[in-house]
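Annex B. Sample input.
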Amino acid sequence: MKDPIIITRHLTHTYQSKNAGPLQKTALDDISLEIERGCCVAIIGVTGSGKSTLVQHFNGLLRPTSGSVMVDGIDVDGKSADRIILRQRAGMLFQFPEAQLFERSVYADVAFGPRRMRLKRKDIRKRVLDALDLVGLPHEEFAMRNPFELSGGQKRRVALAGVLAMTPSILILDEPTVGLDADGREDFYTYLKRIKEQQGVTVVLVSHDMAEVSTLADRLFVLYDGQLVMQGEPRSIFARGETLRAWGLAAPPLNELLSLLRKGGMTLPDEVSTLDEAFDALKGMRTITEKGQV
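Annex B, continued. Sample output.
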């Protein structure tokens, strides 16, 4: 990999219960992976597979029981690791982040992080206004509004703006669209794509939405029972539908349809994985057939 921004080597994390005796549960077992700077990766797996535990190592909320985690040049478990800087570089958005909104205005909520960084007032203002505009909440309209009067999707984007105002190099999103309706999900992912393209930020996405993952992510990491069982490009991962089902996952509907067509005898190239690619392939097959009949 040319420029990995996140590197884990033999990462293992074990939870220990102090209240019920020396009980232990291994949540992550010998995870080694690399995430390239500027890309979008998705971590997928059934509930309890270790996804959230893994990404919480990326901004120092958790430390390895054994193994190592390097994030943008910082050894997460190192004695000299500055976790304030780490969490500025690796911003994290948890599930239902709108529950963490507490200020009386959108501006104040988004400005909370930059203020803690003790930036100058003009720098804070620029960061807040830029972040709001980037997530599709024009500051002229939304900056002075009460965040609790906004829609669910708009609240979610305010929370995202609050993370972006810290200017992270890595954006970690744990099930960012859970609880949103279809329009809210579509809007959120639209602005997420814009953020990646305009800011060059590395996006780490935890999601159960296989359809969105297939279009957003450059690379997938599949976890099962705390182990990294598969990694690769979405088209290669989703082509292995039977293997995914054994791990409790299902390929997006289009990938399942293409698999059924291939099993039914239709000759579709393996690299076909999107609706446009399938249409072009079928159109090409029809042209060849018509020429053969002339």
